[in-house]
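Hello again, I could really use a second opinion on something today. For a while now I've been wondering how a particular protein folds. Please have a think about how the structure follows from the sequence. Here's the protein in full, and shout if anything looks odd to you:

***
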Amino acid sequence: MAEVNHSTVSEFVLLGLCDSWELQIFFFISMLVLYLITVLGNIFIVILVITDSHLHSPMYFLLSNLSFVDLWLSLVTTPKMITDLLKENKTISFGGCMCQILFVHFAGGCEMTLLVTMAYDRYVAICKPLHYTTIMSQRRCIWLVTISWTIGFIHSISQLIVIVELPFCGPRVVNSFFCDIPLVIELACIDSHSLGILMNSDSGILTLTCFIVLLVSYSYILLTVCHYSKDGASKALSTCTAHITVVVLFFGPCIFIYVWPLNITSVDKFLAVFFSVITPLLNPAIYTLRNKEMKVSLRRFKNLYVSSRWNL
């Protein structure tokens, strides 16, 4: 007997962040402001790295790629969430839901591996400074970024292939503001418990592996520098602080979503907001405010472009 396609659901209903209209207005204003800052901040970092020759180094090449991925991550879910805050009926098509799953995990996988690449760059710069330009050549940087994008694509497409073939014929309410694998799998017309564990394990293994590698890398960097120079340790700590902060704030929500799920709706929504809205804001906030070279570059940009235009 030929198999019957049970995927009759054409759209899903998103419950959003809350039911209170007053809170939705508050969230709309605050999320819109954060979104605009995120988009403008990350675009500005990319433009600054491209236009300022002083930032044409492996570290800032990787940072600009990270900003681009963060920009992409914010574009996948946040505009839909913001517009839905003003709607009574929040729906998303089946195709739109699958696209969210694909691009969220694509961007998330890219960002995780890019953070590992940035840790490797800091390791070479601090522990092997004499060989830095040889090891972190332009060609190798491009290869490392390509590998990061490839890992993100393989991770996301492997998840989507499984999800899109599931039969959806009944429940269609997603208790969040965007489609994610754990919530969508629960709506399938099959016993999805084992499949849910398997899919979460896929994301969890990537998350936990990158997180452990990053912790070991930065610990090794600091221990190595402390062993040879106390003054160098202070400088290395200052250099790595921004990276470590981003790592902890980015991987924290991912661990509690995929590795150690709490299954508390309010907490899950908070973590989802943190991952999709706050995390993409970390690059322009942390890297520009704490990085001395970025501050100097900002002043150069202001003097070169803003002041000259003002004089005209």
